[in-house]
């Protein structure tokens, strides 16, 4: 599907289109597991952190709305009623307009996410700030949001994505993507493989950007964790390229990236310095293992990595005949995935 012509779109303040609300104060730790989605400030799984059982007589937040994370601006359409995380600065923001539906809601949520991705954990938005944001939307002959166009566009995208998923399903059947046998793998502490440094712990808001040439890595899972470019600080040597960065807490807990240029870090971002020469592909393999372990066994704001990363954080890796990490296997595996993915992308582009 070609690029959308936005030349005739018009600006709208979010507050002019939506009733802007925040949910009641509630914490997931005070609920039993159930079947009602608990929507928090995460940027994946439609913002759903887990499923809970509402308290007796509790009124759910109404569906057919868009939820926005003040942490990074991630926005999602919520079709059904839900329990929203409220009562703190990072509680979600809810946008209501009776004219939207699942398709137009997803269309607008995507635009809001794009506009509001500038927000960051240390520089969060709030209900009033989000309400004042301006978004560009297609309009009808009366210069009002053209919800019919949005719906039709998203339905066409749904058809295209369905075709793409068919292609991906075929690719998944290849040997490269079959489930890996990990029964012979071993657990390794991160300190077995890396020197673990606490980072430069700088405040993004105080950084000089007049001559930006050094990457500034924060707790983000976008753009390799790089939130901006900053000036080099006299007397503070940046970390070398080739090191890995790891978000220790917050909404992007476990986000792990290989930095390809010299960099500084914000607070709560660890730097992993390889103890030996490791290929880029093997580092990618390890970064994925770190992220998976973080997502499976740790929780943002509840059980974060800070207290564990230098002590008892372990990842499972393939081993060679000496019982050491098998970097050759990791390199070959990631290389095969890259090759297969390249072929799949070529096939998708032909759709």
From TrEMBL:
All residue ranges annotated as the Type I restriction modification DNA specificity domain in the record: 7-156, 183-346
Keyword set includes DNA-binding: yes
Signal peptide: none
Keyword DNA-binding: yes
One GO molecular-function entry: DNA binding
Keywords associated with the record: DNA-binding, Restriction system
GO biological process, alphabetically ordered: DNA restriction-modification system
One Pfam family named in its UniProt record: Methylase_S
Family indicated by similarity: Belongs to the type-I restriction system S methylase family.
Protein name according to UniProt: Type I restriction modification DNA specificity domain-containing protein
Species for this entry: Eubacterium coprostanoligenes
